[in-house]
Every structure is written in C-alpha cells, then in structure tokens.
Design goal:
It contains 13 helices and 15 strands. It is of the alpha+beta class. Strands 3-2-1-4-5 form a 5-stranded mixed sheet.
C-alpha cells in the first residue's frame, strides 16, 4: 500500500465548514452564518465567512447560544445572493465538518431552494475522532478542543467552530493521512483522475488567480478557463457532481494542462476572453455568441419607478449589451447587490422582494434614489474609463507586471512585462465581457 507523508499537502483539497441556523428542519431559509475554510491537510489556504439573512426572526434561545440576533443580520444578504459565490468557493473540495450530516443537509437544502446542486465527497471529524482518538469522554467539538488544548475564539459561531475544526483536522491528518484518503470512500482519491494525465500533473497548480488550458492528444487547445483559485477550479472540472457527463468528457479528452498566473482575477478574466476568441476551443461553448445577444434597457413606469429590463437583441438605447441572457442577469445581480436596488424593479423578477421590499410610495422613493446614485456612479466610472489610456494590475508571483492598453474607454491590448522592461503589446479587438468587467473595476466593485 502507498502511504502518504503527513507533512506533505494532499493532492486533494478540503473545505472545512460550519453553519449556524435559526433552528428547525433544513428548508433553505434558516441559515444565519456560514464559515468555510479551504485546507490542504496541513494549512489554511483561504476562507469564506458571511452572516446570512434568514427568512424568519431568530429565536431568543438561538441568540443566547450563538450571540447572533436579528440586528446582526439585518443588513446581510439572504442565501440566494450568496449561493453561487459559496458554491464556487466550495468547488470540488472534500466537504469536512464536525457532524457532517447536519451542516451538509442545511447547505444542500439551501442550494436546492436556489436551483443549484451540491453533492460533495465528505468527511466527518466526529467519526474520525471516535475511530482514531482515545481518551476523551465525549467527542463534541468543545470536548475535543479541551482535550487537545485547541483555542476556540468563538464557540457556537460558525467562524470560530470552523477554525477550531480545521485545527482538529490538521491533527488527524498528521497521524492518519492515508486512512483519511480511504475514509473519503474513493480509494486513493484518484478515481476522478483523467486517464491520460501523469499522476503529478496537478501537483504544482497554485491556489492563485490565473488562466489554464486543457490540451488534447494532438496538443491543440480543447478548453480555456480562468479562476481566482487555479488549483480548486481545475480539479472541480474533473469531479463535477452537478454535470457528470461534462466531467467525463473533459477527463477523456485532456492529455495535458498548462497554466499561467495573472496576479489578479480581473486580469485572468481579460486574458481568458482574449485567448478564447483567438483559439476558439471546441469545449468553450459558453463563450460563443448566442443569437443576436441581449440588452439591458432602462425606463420609468407609470407609477414613476425607475426600471431596468433584460430583453433579447442589441437595442441601440440599451444601458449595456450582453452575449447571453445569463451574462445579463449576472450583471444585473451585481448592480442590485452593490446599490441596494429592488430586484423586482431591476430586471430580476425571480428575486422579487427578496430584501423585504414592499410596493408603496416610500419603497419607490428609496429605490429611485438608489437608482439615481447608481446611474451617477456609472456615468462617473465610464468617464474615468474613457479618460484612461492604460491600467496596471498587481504583479504575478513570478514578478511579471500585467498592464492593459485602453482607447476611448475600451480594451485594446495587454502585456506582461518585468520591471524596467518594455515588452510588446498583444493587440485585441476586445469584447463586451471585458468592457463590463472594466466598468465594474472603475466603479470600484472589483479589486484588480
């Protein structure tokens, strides 16, 4: 049998999760806090921690236990507005929790209520502790923290319990790395592995922003993607529980993977867009132009409410054009979340009244005021964008300096250069997707 060195990070990634709720059965609407820590068995890589607005008042007994009350979550978004971001963070990492069934059931119910699927491989630190740790009289998280001397800064808060569980998991990994791989129920964890890739093909994949390419047996590019976490995203492709047919197709076709770090998520998006239009990879169906595109239009209804609407086709009076309906909806969600608009009046009827809005004069006045703030900020951002001739982004880990060239507010070229260098520009026709990303950057909604 092959035994893992417990001091070596796993080729898998783990996401250690804890949630707090208002009580009651999982129904997709009673989560109050979520903490998720991305881990490699030896150290924390990243974390995702947010308070969540439930769709009911928090009982006093729960407040006494967790310290979370209605006032704390009053300005927090509901799960529906965090769902996709959380799902992206979880990726294909092995789901770890102390009493995994509890946390996973609540999250799966919440994802399902928002039309998303999540069915990860899982590990339970309660079960593993009972199996491998002798001594404690009980195996609650509090008892195990006391047994090992683990400092839990916030007992019964998701972020405190997740951090304590991560320390416990590291202790388990240090002595039982091989058994933990087997505990996952997938042998050595490589049943998802593409058959044409060598065993160490992903060993050096960094957990940083960048662009990756899947090459077929002839060396041609079959797929191009980007992520703020290359390691997690590439693995997610091959173990995609929500689309196993797609995952199987990628496993069959990929023979080699190459990647490059970009220093920022925005630069990764720009480079991905340029490369897809340059190489036309056959598996990048989502990046192809769909029909005549979509437009977001603005108007004032009879009640005097400022409205946005996503319509099919390229309308000359539109606020912005998009290649697909999903791109337009994603842009509208960002606008709604960033400026606090009423979703139902902003082209997102499926999210109607999600922020406790009511249809009265006061609500219309509040929405209109926020809408005016957004339009002013958008006008400002576009003016700054039009005046910019170049934008410098954060350096890559290798010390390269990403830079883009702009002309009349539109992207025209990019380059990666070294300090004092003068590398040639790579010119490109640009796209609406890049323009929309730059608009968010100039609005201050996206950190480069």
């Amino acid at each position: 049998m092959f035994y893992l060195d417990p001091m070596t990070p796993s080729t898998l990634q783990f996401v250690i999760v804890d949630i707090e709720t208002t009580g009651g059965p999982p129904n997709g609407a009673n989560i109050t806090e979520i903490a998720a820590i991305l881990h490699d068995g030896t150290r924390e890589i990243d974390r995702w921690v947010h308070l969540i607005h439930p769709e009911a008042s928090i009982p006093m007994g729960i407040t006494r236990l967790t310290g979370i009350d209605d006032n704390m979550v009053a300005d927090s978004p509901p799960f529906s507005e965090r769902a996709q971001d959380l799902l992206d963070f979880l990726g294909d990492a092995v789901f770890v929790a102390h009493n995994v069934g509890f946390d996973l059931r609540y999250l799966q119910a919440a994802f399902k209520a928002n039309g998303l699927q999540y069915n990860p491989r899982r590990l339970c630190t309660v079960r593993m502790s009972r199996k491998w740790i002798d001594g404690p009289q009980r195996y609650s998280l509090g008892a195990l923290c006391a047994f090992f001397g683990i400092d839990n800064e916030a007992h019964h808060r998701a972020w405190g319990d997740a951090a304590a569980t991560a320390v416990l998991f590291s202790k388990l990994w240090a002595k039982h790395a091989t058994e933990i791989q087997e505990e996952i129920g997938r042998g050595d964890g490589t049943s998802w592995w593409p058959p044409h890739l060598p065993p160490d093909a992903l060993a050096d994949l960094p957990s940083t922003p960048g662009v990756y390419r899947f090459l077929d047996e002839t060396g041609r590019i079959a797929y191009i993607g980007m992520s703020k976490n290359l390691s997690s995203r590439v693995r997610q492709h091959f173990n995609n529980a929500s689309n196993p047919t797609r995952a199987q197709e990628l496993r069959r076709k990929v023979h080699k993977i190459t990647w490059e770090e970009t220093g920022s998520e925005l630069m990764a998006l720009i480079l991905e867009d340029v490369l897809i239009r340059r190489h036309h990879p056959p598996l990048n169906a989502a990046q192809k132009v769909v029909g005549k595109g979509w437009s977001v239009e603005h108007f004032t209804c009879r009640a005097g409410t400022a409205r946005l609407s996503l319509v099919k086709g390229r309308k000359p009076t539109a606020v912005r054009h998009f290649r697909s309906k999903s791109e337009g909806e994603a842009w509208l969600r960002e606008v709604v979340e960033s400026f606090g608009l009423n979703p139902a009046w902003s082209g997102l009827p499926g999210m109607a009244w999600s922020g406790s809005w009511v249809d009265n004069a006061a609500s219309r006045a509040l929405h209109n005021a926020r809408y005016a703030t957004w339009r002013a900020a958008l006008s400002d951002a576009r003016a700054k964008q039009a005046d910019s001739t170049s934008v410098h982004f954060p350096a890559t880990p290798a010390g390269q300096l990403p830079e883009i060239l702009m002309e009349l507010g539109r992207f025209r070229a990019y380059r990666f250069t070294t300090k004092g260098g003068n590398d040639e520009w790579q010119y490109d026709a640009g796209s609406g997707r890049i323009d929309a990303a730059l608009e968010r950057y100039f609005l201050g909604e996206e950190v480069a």
